[in-house]
Amino acid sequence: MRIRIADIATYDGQQITIQGWLHNRRSSGKIHFLIVRDGTGFVQTVMSKAAVGDEAFTQADHLSQETSLSVTGTVRADARARGGYEIDVTQVEVHGAAHDYPITPKEHGVDYLLDRRHLWIRAERQTAILRIRHEVIDAVRDFLNSRDFILCDTPIFTPAACEGTTTLFPVQYFDDTTAFLTQSGQLYNEANAMALGKVYCFGPTFRAEKSKTRRHLTEFWMVEPEMAYADLNDVIELAEGLIVSVVSRVLDRRRQELEVLERDVSKLESIQAPFPRLTYDRAAQLLKDHGQPFAYGTDFGGTDETVLSEQFDRPVCVTHYPSRIKAFYMQPDPQQSDKALCVDMLAPEGYGEIIGGGQRLDDLDLLRERIEAHGLPQEAFDWYLDLRRYGTVPHGGFGMGIERCVAWICKLEHVRETIPYPRMLHRLYP
Ligand code: 4AD
Ligand code: MG
Q1: Looking at residue 29, what is its pLDDT?
Q2: Residue 337 shares a structural domain with residue 402
Q3: Is residue 180 assigned to a domain?
Q4: What is the domain extent for residue 384?
């Protein structure tokens, strides 16, 4: 019977077959210990000369790392074994040899590993991260679906910028047109919300980020909910609920992976609503109090965000940034017209911004002014202005970057390990 290693506990005492790859092997005299992985887990299989005979035993002397093989044997509970079970081998069938697998148990540099990302993803740490990524994405979908948000996809080829013109990726679109890869589905999402009420889009987004930081990719996945008849407070509450739900889901279902990553889970267990809220002004004061050289009126840099987020044991929502440093579509605060009704959520432990969003400008004339002030082409946004011409309402939403969120939950140095094939300034291969 073919089984998955993840299900091994239900087969104690039974004869089974697992299909996988050899992770590691050690031998002591008349016994080979073959550690096999199958994508669902790892198990130690025990091959004794007495059980398999001389010939098979000698052949197993040459099995090398990442050889693909099927192992048949009997499952045996063993409290000392990793996962609580071992397999006493009766037969090994080799499918494909692996000569000189380039990633060995010794340390390799990160560039070496990134050049071999298609193989590196087989590593235990990497599979743990990718499973957590899967769980985060699944949790996001469940959260929004259970709150009656409608998934409504937005285009990847777009005619204009959403998040500033400096990070656009141009693409030749047939003979005489330049299209741009989407930076965010937000503008289309706003139209979709006017049709369906509560919507979200969830797809790859692109930014020609020339900076080499541990938080930036040029291709990343973003989930963006958008709601009609919503204000800044509704947006913050939704963002808070989403993060609490995602973190508790990972704690619930991915303990083992968090353990592989040696994640301090107590830090994740304290992620409970409500999250602290700070205005931009208070955040600027806090930075000053901590001796950070910060120029009031500018955007927070990576280090500023790190310092701010380290002050709290849960994500902090920073609101009311100066409109000048934010995107053209932000609704001004009626109490202080130079500030925007926006929110950035900064993750704890120095992870910085994981969510950005807010209330959208719903007045036609003001929006037109802003588009002009930002030097954006009016024609490209005419359809977007229609949303203010035909039944405008207060509305808002946000975008959460999946990779930033996973990097924080896994406590990784860099977002590059949170996506199967990272795309960065100097990285397009493999
Ligand atoms: O703050 P951003 O730029 O907001 C928007 O794009 C809005 N239009 C979203 C909306 O309101 N619907 O990006 C949102 C999030 C950030 O908080 C961050 O998590 C992630 O997207 N992000 C990146 N992640 C990885 N690499 C990059 N270069 C990223 N840029 C943004
Ligand atoms: Mg932002």
Answers
A1: 87
A2: yes
A3: yes
A4: 117-418
Each as own residue / partner, the long-range contacts of residues 11-17 (CB below 8 Å, 24 or more positions apart, any chain) are 11/75, 12/75, 12/76, 12/77, 12/85, 13/74, 13/75, 13/76, 14/74, 14/75, 15/72, 15/73, 15/74, 15/90, 16/72, 16/73, 16/74, 16/75, 16/87, 17/70, 17/71, 17/72
Q: Specify burial of residue 208 (Cβ count, 10 A radius: 0-12, 13-18, 19+).
A: middle
Report the residue among 353, 384, 402, 408 best suited for mutation to probe ligand 1: largest number of ligand atoms under 8 A from its CB: 353
Question: The domain spanning residue 20 has which CATH number?
Answer: 2.40.50.140
Distance between Cα 163 and ligand 2 center (Å)? 9
Are residues 373 and 319 both part of a single domain?
A: yes
CB 220 near ligand 1, within 6 Å: yes
User: Is beta strand 219-228 parallel, antiparallel or unpaired with respect to 316-319?
Assistant: unpaired
CATH number for the domain that contains residue 260: 3.30.930.10
Q: How far apart are CA 423 and CA 430, in angstroms?
A: 10
Domain count, the chain: 2
One digit per residue, the tens of pLDDT, for the chain of length 430 reads 999 999 999 999 999 999 999 999 999 889 999 999 999 999 999 999 999 999 999 999 999 999 999 999 999 999 999 889 999 999 999 999 999 999 998 899 999 999 999 999 999 999 999 999 999 999 999 999 999 999 999 999 999 999 989 999 999 999 999 999 999 999 999 999 999 999 999 999 999 999 889 999 999 999 999 999 999 999 999 999 999 999 999 999 999 999 999 999 999 999 999 999 999 999 999 999 999 999 999 999 999 999 999 999 999 999 999 999 999 999 999 999 999 999 999 999 999 999 999 999 999 999 999 999 999 999 999 999 999 999 999 999 999 999 999 999 999 999 999 999 999 999 999 9
- DSSP conformation letters of 335-365: TEEEEESEEEEEETTTTEEEEEEEEBP--HH
The residue whose C-alpha atom lies closest to atom 17 belonging to ligand 1 is 355
To test the pocket of ligand 1, the residue of 149, 184, 316 to mutate (highest count of ligand atoms within 8 Å of its CB) is: 184
Cβ of 162 less than 6 Å from ligand 1: yes
Residue 55 lies in a domain: yes
Q: Please report, for residues 227, 335, 368, the alpha-carbon distance to residue 43 in angstroms, rounded to integers and kept in the order given.
A: 47, 62, 62
Question: Domain check: are 84 and 172 in the same one?
Answer: no
| Domain C-terminal end among 63, 96, 129 | 96
